[in-house]
Amino acid sequence: MEEDDPVVQEIPVFLSQALAENFYIFQYPVRPANRDWKDVMVKNASIKPKNKIVRLEVGLDTYSDKYCPSKGEQIALNTDGQQESRYIKDRDREKSQYFKNGIMDKIVLESSVPCFKTEHYAVALLQDKELHCTPVKGIVQLRPSCSFYDKQDKQKNDKNKAENSDEEDKEPEIQQVTVKFARQETEISKKAREKSYETISQRISDEPWYDGLWKSSDSDQAELERLKLFSAVTTDGSSLTLPHNEYVRALVPAAPADEAGAVVAKRPSLQEQIKEILISAKLMTFSELRGRVYNEDGSLAGEAAVLNALGGAACCVRGLWAPRSADLYTRPSPAPPHLMCAARDHVLYLFTQHPYVDRRKVAAAVRLPPSDVLEIIRSVGKFTPRMGWELLLPPDTAFEAKYNDVVQRQNTYWEARQRQFNEMLIGENMNKRQRKKSQRDSMCDATNSPKPRCISVSEDDSERKRKNKSASGVGKRTRNISSSSVQDAT
């Protein structure tokens, strides 16, 4: 190294594998780089998982000064034909319509086969003087698709065929028929045919589209996915700073089992050890947890290694570390696992905001049986009379002061989880209101509907009595007799 070019700063580089298998970069070659995606409204997203093809339906502002409504209506008319009355619902026709509102109110962005030669590409985030890199699985380029023109051509061809069929049928002309025998296909020709453009295009068109769920960049789910870009499992240093025995072990692989005999069981990773310890202990401080985590060689793990492993194996509540809810509720129980996880995360979020928690308010918010709510709170808290429930251990203020960046990152995670919990409750309330409204409507229809008139047996009896009165005399009470006896009396 030259003396006039000194090292100014050393930045540790970490590799995150949480999104390595599903991390794709979307490129828009025909979209200006200075245009933002905040105002873009994505109506629908579809994907072909086998061929890795994506399609996005982006809405257009039909009320803009730069939009021509007459041209948009003409394009929709040429594509879907004359639309029927809006009061007549035809589901099959409605599904086949490209523009459902009778106007060109969207454009479709569709990708081609993505680029998978991305071994040397990664997305990096620089935060707190640490560089976190995530490998890129593929690169997808989305361009506008004008497939509605193909539908217009198909509609014109069908119309021409219908007009020709109305004419008089002509006698079929006699044509010469030739017979050809197919040659036996070899392996080389078969592989060449499978790689041809026609075969690939046919395979792509045969695969159906599957609807996807589009989340905007400012949503809570997007924020949780971005947190996965930070490495949860990291090691301090590179292979050049390893001890001699570990460096030789990394260079020379272990002998096979049939040659070296029984292989010694490998010690679990730091994350697995932390998960097992926290599931048993429920709540621990960082110093206590560090004294129970060991490296592969049997030595105590370093402070930095344990701290990095905690990011993907546990969650922090006021400086204390607890197991993640997804690791606790993995099997189905009387309550669904996702509801138990959401309820426990809500309780932990309340402990990050308040020193004491009221069990009755928690039960009213999470809407779970009281026994499940009590089990969740008991796993992390203890009851104090006249105060409420507090954490099992006092807050670790020393850890919060020393590792403020870790605490801030965990607080961001809890806020995102709480927003998801609130959205889940709002969705349940909306569904209940819709069900109650439909029940009220059905009850109103039942009360307002006219009752059918029923002909009872008493009407026939009254008719017979009237005949009997006319036969025997007015005002005289008679018995109910048959018609034959009435004729005999007359």
Describe this structure in words.
With 490 residues, the chain is of the alpha+beta class. Among the domains are: 13-60 and 105-159 and 189-228, no CATH class; 313-428, no CATH class. Helices cover 44% and strands 13% of the residues. Strands 2-8-5-4-3-9 form a 6-stranded mixed β-sheet, with no helix packed on it. Strands 1-7-6 form a 3-stranded mixed β-sheet, with no helix packed on it. The protein has a two-stranded antiparallel sheet with strand order 10-11. Helix 6 (220-227) runs antiparallel to helix 17 and helix 14 packs across helix 15. The protein is extended and about 95 Å long. It comes from Papilio xuthus (Asian swallowtail butterfly). Residues 151-164 have a biased composition (Basic and acidic residues). This is DNA-directed RNA polymerase III subunit RPC5. Residues 480-490 have a biased composition (Polar residues). Keywords: DNA-directed RNA polymerase, Transcription.
**Could you give a short account of the major beta sheet?**
6 strands, mixed
Low-confidence region ranges = 259-263, 449-460, 469-490
Q: Radius of gyration, Cα only, in angstroms?
A: 37 Å
How many strands? 13
How far the N terminus sits from the C terminus, by CA atoms, comes to 139 Å
Question: How are strands sequenced across the largest beta sheet?
Answer: 2-8-5-4-3-9
Number of discrete helical segments? 19
Question: What fraction, in percent, of the residue positions are helical?
Answer: 40-55%
Shape: extended
Mean pLDDT across all amino acids:
77
Strand content: 5-15%
Structural class: alpha+beta
Keywords: DNA-directed RNA polymerase, Transcription
Biased composition (Polar residues): 480-490
InterPro entries: RNA_pol_III_Rpc5
GO cellular component, one term: RNA polymerase III complex
